[in-house]
Amino acid sequence: YFGAQFTPRGDIFKKDNLQLYNYNIGSDKFPKFIISIDHTESDLQKWQGESFPMDFLAFTPEKNSTPLGAEGKIMITRVTESMVNGNFDGELIHPVSGKRFPFRGEFKARLEINQ
Length: 115
Description:
Layout: E1 3-7, E2 16-21, E3 32-39, E4 51-53, E5 56-60, E6 69-79, E7 83-93, E8 100-113
Parallel strand pairs: 1-8
Antiparallel strand pairs: 1-2, 2-3, 3-5, 4-6, 6-7, 7-8
C-alpha cells in the first residue's frame, strides 16, 4: 500500500506539499517511511517530469528503532486524478553512526487531495 496526500499552500503549509507514505497511521507493520516534498506549483499535474531533492524522508525499519534520514532525488513520472507515480534514488543515513545505505525504488501511490 502506498499513499499520496497533496495539500495546496494556504493555512497549513507555506508551499504546496506532497506527502508519500507506505503505511496506515496506527498500523503495526514495518518498515514505514514518509517522504514530504514542498514546491511552489499548486497544479500537481505540472509536477510530472520534475525531480526534487529528498529534503525530508523518515524511514523506520522496525518497531522501536530510530528513523533513518536520506539524501537523494525523487522524480514524479506520472500524475492522474487518482494516482502519483515516480521513483527515488539516494542513500539512507543512520542518524547516530552516519552509516549510509543505497536506497532506490519506484512508487505508485493512491492520491488524496486536501482542499
